[in-house]
Design a protein that fits this description.
The complex is a heterotrimer of chains A (82), B (593) and C (501). With 82 residues, chain A is mainly alpha-helical. The radius of gyration of chain A is 20 Å and the shape is elongated. Chain A contains three helices and one strand. Chain B is mainly α and 593 residues long. Chain B is globular. With 501 residues, chain C is mostly helical. Helix content of chain C is 74%, strand content 3%. Classes of the chains: A mainly alpha (82), B mainly alpha (593), C mainly alpha (501). Chains B and C meet through helix 5, helix 6, helix 19, helix 20 and helix 21 of B and helix 4, helix 5, helix 6, helix 11 and helix 16 of C. Strand 1 of chain A pairs antiparallel with strand 3 of chain B.
Chain lengths: 82, 593, 501
């Protein structure tokens, strides 16, 4: 699995590019529509959700990896009980 | 009969009748007619329901089986629709018991959402638990034990609920099922809430979902994922809207569910943890309790029933066609099961809240309600859960099932194809409904219980959602090397009762049983020996010399048992002798007095 | 319904109630080796008894109290019959279940080609006579007399197989019951007689009892304890050992006697003693109710825990019975209207469910030869109706609506609250969960378990008329269990209007 994703890296350069484009478009939309409607405060900062999405995703992955290390057990862990 | 305009037909009656029919009928065509016809009939009946109907006097209380207001009817419709889609999806299954269980289960949850009092609610609550377990049993090889745990957990939850109801009745509370805890939570309210929270899979009472659902049959899990947790959302919305504790609990639930989903390896367990996560949104909104928030919870329940159903259908098709459910054993199925891929992706994107899907509409209402209630912390938690949803279901799940290259241990999967027509049709219809709800938000909003609505497709919402999803995808692209699933299971709260139960069983089988045997053996040492000696001395009284009704009758019985007594060692005589002595003592007391 | 008869005619019919099974026993003996006549006599006798009970009971439902002293031995000690609501409840339960059991026995005994069937049917009927006599007893003396008839007439039934195991079981059985009744019941009766000057029950009011206010509390307490210990048929721990031991008997015996007649006679007597001898006021003021309730609760929980560990199906059912009987004792000991209602309703509810379970255990043994739960993997697919009935009865035991057990659980739960004891409420509900553990396990194994290794199961009597008799009986009692749950009004009405003050 691991190598599957990495070897196909070359073919997928358009993917991050497209994602970054969407993010930029979102930020522009935020700036244009800032004072019309929507949330106030921190959430109204243009591009806040882009940053939050990226940071949240990386943090989630990191924390979950750590948790998995604690909670992961072999498949037959419960075989001796009900 | 159900076509008479004056007579209200409870949909649960139709489902229950069909369930009995399905349990008895062997003929394939009749089975299919029942499977497809019943939900249609139930939908017709549901549309014609009056506001209140079906009262019954039972155990000195008045039960109300039918209370059809806007809140009930929304859930009623979505359950009936899902019952129809689930029946269509499992049309090729020939197991009578599983079809019957599915419809009895549908009867249970339509009964719960229409129940106007706690007693009828409880009756259908139990029906749900005991019917649904048959959808788990008979699934995977480990389903017997998983279903056993499932039913015990639900039996325990129902008992807590029952304790609450009994306490409420005893303390003079009304049996009618209305908003609870208005003047502070009483013990009864807390018990009832606990019973509800267990069915809603609110941590720490959530482990049963991830434990049992993945072991269910592919058709059965469609019903399971739609019904139990969503009826719990309904009863929470009905009874505990605005209960503050539910808001943080729901947000935490959304995060815990998604956290497990991110690291889980089993495809269906990922989806099961996602049920917990998505129900967290609803519980959180119910905790906020404003009209808009309750609307959001209901809308999210409606769209989530469709989306989660669609995902389980897709993954179920994969499991059915390949016989495998662990991500590390799957991959590169895009060529083999293309239609399944497309349809499942619609569900995955919808549950991630992509605009133009039902998930976007319902999430927007919830988020707007949170904004209006000024709860930024909760909003961030739910947004983080959205990230995790897209992470695990939107990207990780399809990536490892359908993409990647064929490897040595997964090439056998390539022989699989798209599932039978009925499964594909069920998935197509579900996807169409989900998209319709997203493209025409007015349709869904018209069904919501409260008038309060908000603008769905505001530029800010669309832009924020797209940013969030794109940023998540980008983040995943960066760390793609660390995503590979690994075999193994994850510990959860069920560890407590699985290990705990085996400890209890060991204690019972060991010390308790030994003690019991010792007590049972006591009579041999303390009872029989001395008594034999005593009565031996007393057998001088010849029993035949005694008349009197008792012993005459006893003797007659004994004479008939002659053959037995000869082989016995004569102990009977000793006891009869003893009886006679005591009888004489009694007479002496009588005389002396 | 049957029209209510004048009270003196009801009284006459009532006296016939315990005699009808005796006549049946005589008819069975007379029929001898003509098996068809014998089996017919057995079923006809059961039906006749049921009709007599209902005829006598119609007036009781209306408010009559049929009463008749047959002969007086000493002042205050007479052979006397009376039928009140409590007695009618037990008599109707026992006679109705006997009809099903009579049909079932024919199927079972023939399927297994048991020996000495005439002896079996004869003592079966005599035991019923004892049970109905206990139900109709108008004083303690009569009650005691028929109580002992049950004990003795059941002995040859327990020892029916006449091998060393059944003798051992029967010996335990007789020693427990005889010893307890002789050592405790008789002295208790004597004490009571010295205090009251009569042994006649106070059937008019459950609050006052028959003891005069002048009775010294210590003596009353002693007397009460002696009664509870003496009535060992109620299987209150630690006097429960005889019940699992008696499981060596053939299944119809376990079904009718050790789920309905014998054990219910025990708890019926305890109810009688608590309600008609001591009265709820006295028990409440001496705190005896609470103590009994806690003792019953300990029995309920411990017996359920032991039941979980039993792998022999009948042994598991036996421990379940021990546990369920204490529900009845617990409910009455709560001394509150709901508690007593729940307890007394549990007499028919438990009877219908447990007799079904034993019928199923017997049918499984007769059809497949399996006794051990661990060997029952996959049997549910071969004999689905048997396990369906087992499932329904199990739901009643767990207390799931709309099966009978739910009604008793509901009232018992209310009763614990009326006694202000949340501990007891928790206990009742916990026990319900334990019931779920050990009954559902059987169902899971039967339908979804792997067939056991040595499992060349031959349905020896797959669909013969013989098994049809068994099936009919066990499906009828399972259906009765459901009917009790959906329409409990007749039984509840009888309890509320004729037993409670």
């Amino acid at each position: 699995m691991n190598e599957t994703v990495t070897t196909s890296k070359g073919r997928h350069v358009w993917l991050p590019a497209a994602l970054i484009l969407i993010l930029l478009a979102g930020v522009v939309a935020d700036i244009l529509g800032a004072d019309h409607e929507g949330p106030a405060g921190v959430f109204a900062i243009p591009g806040f959700w882009s940053v939050f999405g990226l940071a949240g995703c990386l943090m989630l992955a990191g924390v979950c990896k750590l948790v998995a290390r604690l909670l992961k057990r072999p498949e037959n862990y419960y075989d001796d009980v009900l | 009969m159900m076509m008479f305009s004056e007579i209200a037909v409870h949909p649960a009656v139709l489902f229950l009748g069909a369930a009995i029919g399905l349990a008895c009928v062997r003929s394939g065509p009749v089975q299919r007619v029942l499977l497809l016809g019943t939900p249609v009939a139930a939908l017709v009946a549901a549309i014609r329901l009056p506001d209140r109907f079906g009262t019954m006097h039972y155990l000195g209380m008045d039960m109300l089986f039918g209370r059809a207001d806007a809140l009930s009817v929304l859930f009623l419709y979505s359950f009936i629709v899902m019952a129809a889609l689930g029946a269509l999806y499992s049309l090729q299954v020939r197991s009578r018991i599983r079809h019957a269980a599915a419809f009895a289960y549908a009867a249970g949850c339509t009964g719960v959402v229409l129940a106007g009092d706690f007693l009828s609610l409880f009756v259908f609550w139990e029906l749900m638990a005991f019917a649904s377990v048959f959808l788990i049993w008979g699934g995977s090889a480990r389903s017997a034990a998983a279903g056993f745990r499932y039913i015990l957990v639900h039996a325990a939850g129902a008992l807590v609920l029952l304790a609450g109801i009994v306490l409420r009745v005893y303390t003079g509370g009304s049996l009618a099922f209305e908003q609870l805890g208005a003047g502070g939570m009483s013990t009864a309210d807390i018990l009832i809430l606990t019973g509800f929270l267990l069915n809603a899979a609110v941590p720490p009472l959530h482990a049963w979902v991830a434990d049992a659902y993945p072991e269910a049959s592919p058709g059965g899990v469609i019903f399971l994922c739609a019904f139990t947790t969503k009826t719990a959302v309904y009863v929470l919305a009905r009874g505990f809207a605005g209960l503050e504790i539910l808001a943080p609990l729901g947000a935490a639930m959304a995060l815990i569910g998604v956290g497990y989903a991110v690291i889980e390896n089993d495809a269906r367990r990922i989806l099961a943890y996602h049920i917990i996560s998505q129900v967290g949104y609803m519980v959180c909104a119910i905790g906020i309790g404003t009209d808009l928030a309750v609307n959001g919870a209901c809308a999210h329940a409606f769209s989530n029933i469709l989306n989660k159903g669609l995902l389980f259908m897709g993954v179920g098709a994969v499991v059915l066609q390949t016989g495998r459910g662990r991500l590390h054993q799957l991959g590169a199925l895009a060529r083999a099961m293309p239609r399944t891929l497309v349809l499942t992706m619609i569900g995955a994107l919808a549950i991630s809240g992509l605009p133009l899907t039902g998930g976007f509409v319902s999430k927007s209402i919830v988020i707007t309600a949170l904004e209006q209630a000024h709860r930024p912390g909760l909003e961030l938690m739910l947004m983080l859960a959205s990230i995790g949803t897209f992470f695990s279901v939107g990207i990780k799940l399809p990536l490892f099932i359908w993409f990647g290259s064929v490897k040595a241990d997964t090439c056998a999967n390539q022989a699989a194809g798209d599932p039978p027509w009925n499964m594909l049709l069920a998935m197509t219809l579900t996807a169409a409904l989900s998209l319709a709800a997203g493209m025409f938000p007015g349709l869904l909003q018209a069904l919501l219980p409260h008038q309060e609505i908000c603008r769905i497709y505001s530029p800010a919402h669309v832009s924020h959602t797209l940013q969030l999803l794109a940023a998540t995808a980008l983040g995943l692209y960066i760390i793609r090397g660390f995503l590979a699933p690994k075999p193994g299971i994850l510990l959860d709260v069920d560890w407590l009762y699985r290990r705990g139960a085996s400890l209890v069983m060991r204690l019972c089988a060991g010390p308790l049983n030994r003690m019991n045997e010792r007590v049972n053996g006591l009579y041999q040492r303390a009872g029989v020996g001395p008594a034999q000696k005593a009565s031996g001395a007393l057998t001088l009284f010849d029993r035949s010399g005694i008349d009197g009704f008792i012993d005459g009758l006893a003797m007659a019985a004994l004479v008939l048992g002659e053959s037995l007594r000869v082989i016995q060692t004569g102990k009977i005589q000793h006891y009869i002798g003893g009886a006679v002595i005591f009888f004489f003592l009694l007479l002496i007391i009588v005389m002396l007095r | 319904m049957i029209p209510a008869l004048p009270v003196h005619i009801s009284a006459l019919i009532m006296v016939l109630v315990p005699l009808a099974p005796l006549a049946t026993a005589a008819a069975v003996l007379a029929a001898g080796s003509r098996t068809f006549v014998r089996d017919f006599a057995s079923v006809a006798g059961a039906l006749l008894t049921l009709v007599l009970v209902l005829a006598a009971g119609a007036g009781v439902m209306k408010g009559d109290l049929p009463d008749m002293a047959v002969c007086t031995l000493y002042p205050g000690i007479a052979l006397r019959f009376s039928l009140d609501g409590l007695g009618l409840l037990f008599a109707a339960t026992a006679s109705a279940m006997w009809v099903a059991a009579a049909v079932y026995s024919i199927g079972y005994m023939r399927a297994l080609s048991e020996h000495a069937q005439s002896r079996f049917y004869c003592f079966y009927a005599v035991a019923l006579s004892g049970g109905l006599g206990v139900a109709c007893a108008g004083n303690l003396f009569t009650l005691y007399l028929f109580y002992e008839v049950i004990t003795i007439s059941t002995y040859p039934l327990v020892a029916h197989h006449q091998d060393s195991k059944s003798y051992a079981g029967a010996r335990t059985y007789i020693v427990y019951l005889m010893f307890a009744s002789k050592a405790c019941l008789l002295p208790a009766m004597a004490i009571l007689y010295t205090q009251c000057g009569t042994l006649d029950f106070n059937l008019s009011d459950i609050t006052t009892g028959m003891l005069p206010g002048s009775a010294p509390p210590a003596l009353v307490r002693l007397c009460y304890v002696l009664f509870v210990l003496g009535l060992a048929k109620a299987a209150l721990m630690p006097l429960h050992g005889w019940l699992p031991a008696a499981m060596v008997a053939p299944a119809p015996v376990s079904a009718l006697l050790h789920a309905v007649v014998v054990v219910k006679a025990g708890v019926f007597c305890i109810c009688r003693v608590m309600l008609s001898v001591f009265g709820t006021d006295l028990l409440g003021s001496l705190n005896l109710g609470l103590v009994t309730a806690y003792a019953a609760m300990v029995t309920i929980i411990v017996a359920s825990l032991i039941a979980m560990t039993q792998t022999d199906l009948k042994a598991r059912l036996a421990y379940s019975t021990v546990s369920q009987l204490s529900y009845i004792i617990l409910g009455v000991a709560l001394l509150s209207p709901s508690g007593i209602t729940g307890a007394l309703f549990h007499i028919p509810a438990h009877a219908a469910a447990k007799i079904t379970l034993f019928f199923c255990a017997g049918a499984i043994f007769a059809m497949t030869g399996k006794k051990d739960i661990r060997d029952m993997g996959g049997l549910g697919l071969q004999i689905p109706w048997v396990f369906a009935a087992f499932g329904i009865a199990a739901l009643s035991m767990i207390g799931v609506p709309p099966v009978g057990g739910f009604v008793s659980k509901w009232y018992l739960a209310l009763g614990t609250l009326e006694m202000h004891s949340r501990v007891l409420l928790a206990g009742v509900l916990l026990s319900s969960l334990l019931n779920a553990v050990y009954f559902i396990e059987v169902i899971v194994r039967a339908f979804y378990g792997r067939p056991s290794a040595h499992a060349s199961i031959t349905c020896a009597h797959g669909s013969s008329p013989v098994t049809a008799l068994m099936l009919a009986a066990l499906l009828a009692t399972a259906a009765f269990s459901v009917i009790l749950g959906i329409w409990p009004d007749a039984a509840i009405g009888l309890i509320v209007s004729r037993v409670l003050p």
